[in-house]
Amino acid sequence: MEQTFIMIKPDGVQRGLVGEIIGRFEKKGFTLKGLKFITVDRHFAEQHYADLSAKPFFNGLVEYIISGPVTAMVWEGKNVVTTGRKIIGATNPADSAPGTIRGDYAIDIGRNVIHGSDSVESAKKEIALWFPEGIAEWRSSVHQWIY
Ligand code: RTP
């Protein structure tokens, strides 16, 4: 079954959106397979965003991610990468539809509350980076009512 890496960024944590965001993924029918509340250091944040290192906003982005604890998660389910990105909304909250997380809870691209893997391949890389110890082996008992 497909998995994705979802991170509630420091602004989402500080603003008390953790429960709301987890609830949206749970209510959709996805399964929470990994959950960790941590503050990462600069080197780690740079590794996570390595693909964006040439961007002018890279340093600001790294400062933002290391500014407080984040909630790192692995979610599992059919098409969870693509559907997860739809639940999250467009990168720039100005373009995110109402009903999406960013559309409902964010205004500025530099404080857009949440990250979600953009492909199955990046999800695999990000899960390996954030959960090197592995994740829980369990299958939700509601599966038969969702699929
Ligand atoms: P994410 O990785 O956080 O899910 O975001 P994304 O795929 O939707 O967007 P991406 O282009 O990968 O950018 C990663 C994060 O960088 C910040 N950003 N700032 N100031 C700017 O113009 C700008 N552009 C991007 C955002 O926090 C974005 O989520």
UniProtKB/TrEMBL annotation:
<dbReference type="Pfam" id="PF00334">
    <property type="entry name" value="NDK"/>
</dbReference>
<feature type="binding site">
    <location>
        <position position="91"/>
    </location>
    <ligand>
        <name>ATP</name>
    </ligand>
</feature>
<dbReference type="InterPro" id="IPR036850">
    <property type="entry name" value="NDK-like_dom_sf"/>
</dbReference>
<keyword id="KW-0547">Nucleotide-binding</keyword>
<feature type="binding site">
    <location>
        <position position="85"/>
    </location>
    <ligand>
        <name>ATP</name>
    </ligand>
</feature>
<dbReference type="GO" id="GO:0005524">
    <property type="term" value="F:ATP binding"/>
</dbReference>
<dbReference type="GO" id="GO:0006228">
    <property type="term" value="P:UTP biosynthetic process"/>
</dbReference>
<dbReference type="GO" id="GO:0006241">
    <property type="term" value="P:CTP biosynthetic process"/>
</dbReference>
<feature type="active site" description="Pros-phosphohistidine intermediate">
    <location>
        <position position="115"/>
    </location>
</feature>
<protein>
    <recommendedName>
        <fullName>Nucleoside diphosphate kinase</fullName>
        <ecNumber>2.7.4.6</ecNumber>
    </recommendedName>
</protein>
<feature type="binding site">
    <location>
        <position position="9"/>
    </location>
    <ligand>
        <name>ATP</name>
    </ligand>
</feature>
<feature type="binding site">
    <location>
        <position position="102"/>
    </location>
    <ligand>
        <name>ATP</name>
    </ligand>
</feature>
<dbReference type="GO" id="GO:0006183">
    <property type="term" value="P:GTP biosynthetic process"/>
</dbReference>
<dbReference type="GO" id="GO:0004550">
    <property type="term" value="F:nucleoside diphosphate kinase activity"/>
</dbReference>
<dbReference type="InterPro" id="IPR023005">
    <property type="entry name" value="Nucleoside_diP_kinase_AS"/>
</dbReference>
<keyword id="KW-0418">Kinase</keyword>
<feature type="domain" description="Nucleoside diphosphate kinase-like">
    <location>
        <begin position="1"/>
        <end position="137"/>
    </location>
</feature>
<dbReference type="InterPro" id="IPR034907">
    <property type="entry name" value="NDK-like_dom"/>
</dbReference>
<comment type="function">
    <text>Major role in the synthesis of nucleoside triphosphates other than ATP. The ATP gamma phosphate is transferred to the NDP beta phosphate via a ping-pong mechanism, using a phosphorylated active-site intermediate.</text>
</comment>
<keyword id="KW-0067">ATP-binding</keyword>
<keyword id="KW-0808">Transferase</keyword>
<comment type="similarity">
    <text>Belongs to the NDK family.</text>
</comment>
<feature type="binding site">
    <location>
        <position position="112"/>
    </location>
    <ligand>
        <name>ATP</name>
    </ligand>
</feature>
<dbReference type="GO" id="GO:0042542">
    <property type="term" value="P:response to hydrogen peroxide"/>
</dbReference>
<feature type="binding site">
    <location>
        <position position="57"/>
    </location>
    <ligand>
        <name>ATP</name>
    </ligand>
</feature>
<dbReference type="InterPro" id="IPR001564">
    <property type="entry name" value="Nucleoside_diP_kinase"/>
</dbReference>
